[in-house]
Design a protein that fits this description.
This protein is mainly beta. It is 0% helix and 39% strand. It has no helices and seven strands. It has a three-stranded antiparallel beta sheet with strand order 5-6-7, with no helix packed on it. Strands 1-2 form a two-stranded antiparallel ribbon. Strands 3-4 form a two-stranded antiparallel sheet. The protein starts with a strand and ends in a 14-residue tail after the last strand. The mean pLDDT is 83.
């Protein structure tokens, strides 16, 4: 995977969404039918700044110091993607 989530393209079709580590979870298993095995992957990204949510899309930046201009990227909500940790900036 080389540190990028390839199956989560931004709105321009770029596949560069970074991650630092991941966790694999066994969701369900079936001894008699291996096709029914289900796993879950949790990806841990570097800190990202959520600038806004526009039209069911996240507008994000990897620049988190908030003192300079932001290079941004946007990706659409995905049914199997969730934000698992969020810190409010003061």
């Amino acid at each position: 995977m080389k540190g990028e989530i390839k199956s989560l393209p931004d709105v321009l079709g770029n596949t560069f969404f970074p991650f630092e580590s991941f966790k694999l979870d066994l969701i369900s298993s079936n001894i008699e039918d291996p096709s029914k095995h289900k796993i879950g992957l949790t990806f841990y990204t570097p800190e990202l700044l959520l600038i806004d949510i526009i039209d069911n899309k996240y507008l994000l930046s990897s620049n988190t110091d908030r003192k300079h201009s932001f290079e941004t990227f946007m990706f659409a909500f995905h049914p199997q993607v969730a934000i698992s940790s969020y810190n409010l900036l003061e």
